[in-house]
Design brief:
single chain, 126 residues, alpha/beta, Gyrase A, domain 2, 5-stranded mixed sheet, 9 strands, globular
Length: 126
Amino acid sequence: MELDYIDQVNSFGESFVRLYGFDMAESLLLTQTIVDWLNSAEPKLNLGQLEFITPRNCNLVLCKAEENDGILSQDATTFYCLLNADGYQDLLKALAPFSTKETKGYAYLYDIDNPIDLLYSPAGTW
């Protein structure tokens, strides 16, 4: 699984952090890692430090938050995904189809009015 940032993907100036290049087994591993983290007292989960994720041009840190702010960054290199418990449950629901069968589709992992989306795509396409 790889992690990167793509800036200005359309005429609206939107960008996304992308998790891509994975199979069903890696998707299931990511899902379980997030579930374990949510059940722990740890406030953050640094995806770039996970053994099965290769950061390309950025890092993504999941953070437990009071509100769903989505992905924020001050330097376009380190990104923080701030979601509350319900937001992470929605994210896990979006991950579920990729953890039960091989697929070539893609999904945006949250639906928040934010200029930076979180794209999940086995083939890297959108």
